[in-house]
Structures
1.
Amino acid sequence: MSARVPRERPPRRPFPRLTGAAGLIPAAAAALVLLLGSPLAESGTGTVARSGPAPTAAAPLPAARPA
């Protein structure tokens, strides 16, 4: 009979659950931003039609002289 040779085990990851959670946290945050909107968006900016005259462009500044 042949002698049984012990197989080497592959090295274990030290914290498999922690590394899995570290990947899920940014994915969950991105999903929340996509679903709820960015918390950094300014309030009042949107595609709501406003009544009143159209905004006009400001007058251009005079040409500056070289220093």
2.
Amino acid sequence: MSLLKSLLAGGATPALTVALAVAATATGALAEPALIFDLGGKFDKSFNEAAFAGAQRWVEETGGTYKELEMQSEAQREQALRRLAETGANPIVTTGFAFADVLNQVAPDYPDTRFVIIDTVVEQPNVQSVVYSEPEGSYLAGILAGMSSKSGTAGFIGGMDIPLIHKFQCGYAQGFMAARPDGKIVTNFTGTTPAAWNDPVKGAELARAQISQGADVIYAAAGGTGIGVLQAAADANVLSVGVDSNQNHLHPGKVLTSVLKRVDNSVYEAFKAGTAVEPGVKVMDLKSDGVGLAMDDNNKPLITPEMMAAVEDATAKIVAGETKVHDYMTDNACPAG
């Protein structure tokens, strides 16, 4: 267990935790990597948990140790980055676009430290920015949703109403409409603040509202909020689609698939590279196995050979450049509604 983790477990306040970590590790190893989880918690069964899985894979393979910190508030971001840099942690991996502004301020002050930010771009000479082709993975889920839906109506529930989450929605809508041209997408977002990532009660309420409108396959791209969406869908005997991590096991036979965003691979690769992490933008897409769908025994009964063939065909065409999945963030618009 890392020092930061043990101090958090011991009940120290966020500010004191980081300060104590600096003092206690000042004479220790100076090249331990570090991972800062975003709001919503390490075990959100989604985005943060995928990052944790990548770090754990690195530990299992190398026997190494790393520092980790779970965010408790927005105000902690800058302090956490600076204190970890002062301990000699290198590289420092941050999960989530919300770190962008503070990383732009902090990175220049620690030119010998490598930083990795997941989900957005920060243009600094010592920062690697990892972005994903979420529309591609979501498009494949949309195809499955279109082929599975009996009502012709699919739902999408996003977390925070921001362009990044519109990328998921737009890719899903394009895939759904490709498989079901006469279909309809119902869309809701949980909120406009970071609290939107951790409100499963609101997620369940939105899911029930969409079900009342006829949605029988609902995709949740909402972090911890999505747990409520998947639960409400299972309770109503309709299908759901998970996100980021493989969530098929949460409701076997009820989760159609999960759109994998291989945050685990990104964290693992950053830790493995260590101080040799290359700055610049790294794009994770279908071709690089950065996104994809989760297929396992939990959803196997839901996937027909025809559905699998359709996904494989779409994957091949996207990778080959024959099918272009529109990225919402290129023009803040979606051609599929």
3.
Amino acid sequence: MPDIFQSFFLGGFESSTQRRREGVRLDLIASTEHDIRAAEDYALMAAHGIRTVRDAVRWHLIERRRGDYDFSSLLPQVRAARDAGTQVIWDLFHYGMPNGVDVWAPRFVDRFAEFARAVAQVIKDETDTVPFYIPINEISFFSWGAGDVAYLNPFARGRGGELKAILVRSTIAAIEAIRDVDSRARFSVAEPLINILPQSPSPEHVRAAADYMDAQFEAVDFLAGKRAPELGGGPQYLDVVGLNCYFNNQWIDHGPTVYLGDPSNKPLRDLIALAHARTERKVFIAETGTEGTGRAPWLHHVADEVAAAMTAGVPVEGICLYPVLSHLGWDDFRRCPNGMIEAFGNGEPRTVYKPLADELARQQGLFASGYLQRE
């Protein structure tokens, strides 16, 4: 049975802090007012049976100059979680770096490790629970978005492999630094769970799709030391594996999305089993959700698939509703109705999206009863 988290269903607070191309800095923790309403938010989570959350440390606010740390943006969240008895998985790098930090510079790895050490010391000093960290969120997606297609800062092209290696080395260095502070610390990765279908039955296209599929495991393979040993990986750097699952995570290579209901769409239970077999670690759904009226049906689908995977013997530790607070969009600041709690800032009251809350309660009851395999 799951035993790592305080609740099987988790809530994830969207925490992106990247700078857009025009220089605008995103800060979704601030725009949802989670930074000033953390106690209220953790209480809302507890009221809905969620005692474990994903939250984030905002590096750009904490370290404006190298080695000069100001934790005033973090301490309210840490203390609110402590007082509420909420377990937090802390993201240390959620796409955003301080102004002036160059991810390509040789000193980046050490600087990130120094920052991780400082954060770990604060959390150790403020709480007595076993800490949990995701050093770098979505290494694979960030490497692609920031290193290959110029979507995320630093807006590079053709350097995704180079960036992935830097992020893996940074993760390893951060884990070592945190363990120096607190040997009890636990760690996770959060990586997209994808399925790529070939363009045609030709051997060339089948191989290309298979190679693309294999690439989703590069980061965890590097961390575990299964590939690229020069990066310093080893089994001690891969703990719990988080899998990010959305409606558009399956597509034809260089082609359209393969949506749920398409005969070519691979069952999520099989993808979860594949990830477990490949990583040889316990797994959890680290992100899943969708917008609008699809929110409750999507959770129903994901929970049924997770239940089937667990019945087949896959050790799944939880499902994280991500985001649990609706927020403003990355690119256009539109209202994205994708959470269980509507939270668009400007002092607006938190309101519950009842269909999703009801489905969550139903699923919590089913999992608590031990009823897993579902038709």
